[in-house]
Specification:
Elements (H helix, E strand, L loop, with lengths): L7 H14 L5 E4 L5 H8 L3 E4 L10 H5 L4 E5 L8 H6 L5 E7 L24 H10 L2 E9 L8 H6 L5 E8 L3
Parallel strand pairs: 1-2, 1-3, 3-4
Antiparallel strand pairs: 4-6, 5-6
Length: 175
């Protein structure tokens, strides 16, 4: 599918998980600016609305003003200082998100040249589960997967066996 120009394993697994739970007739609000995966979703028949680059920690207006059936956030929650408020402001009943997991053998990612390209949170699976529960979501399906790299060394070897990504499909709890 997406072999050369994309992280093929991650994108293929994410697309399969999306297709398992979300119909192409449902409009997706994808957290973050247009990106390679939002293009893949569109190429597979989904209607996708992206945020415009606003600071989502301070401004959740787009979450309230857009019309959508599904909320997605792929590898973006780790960049937010305030994911709780973002999740509280989602106005649909379905969400699908993925995060990189905190790895004991690798420190949190921090770009030295880009102040926005940093991981404020690196979750363990239970932390994301708890965050979703606290903001009114029930996890229906989840998957973890590895991210092997083609390098030699102790850390690359560990990446073959240690899950790096956690993806969940959740639905809003009806009160």
């Amino acid at each position: 599918m997406y072999e050369k120009t994309y992280p093929s394993k991650r994108f293929n697994l994410t697309l399969a998980f999306l297709k398992k739970h979300i119909k192409t007739s449902e409009t997706i609000f994808d957290l973050g600016v247009p990106n390679p995966f939002s293009k893949i979703m569109e190429d597979n028949g989904y209607t996708v609305i992206n945020t415009k680059g606003e600071d989502l920690d301070n401004d959740q207006t787009a979450l309230q003003n857009e019309t959508y059936n599904v909320f997605t956030g792929f590898e973006i929650f780790e960049h937010l200082l305030n994911p709780y408020t973002v999740l509280e402001n989602v106005k649909c009943d379905k969400l699908l998100i993925s995060i990189p997991l905190r790895l004991w053998f690798s420190p949190a990612y921090r770009s030295k040249t880009d102040k926005w390209d940093r991981h404020y949170h690196e979750f363990e699976d239970w932390q994301l589960d708890w965050l979703l529960e606290k903001t009114g979501w029930k996890i229906v399906d989840r998957v973890k997967f590895t991210h092997p790299v083609k390098k030699l060394g102790f850390r690359p070897l560990l990446r073959y066996f240690t899950p790096r990504y956690y993806m969940v499909y959740a639905e809003r709890v009806k009160s």
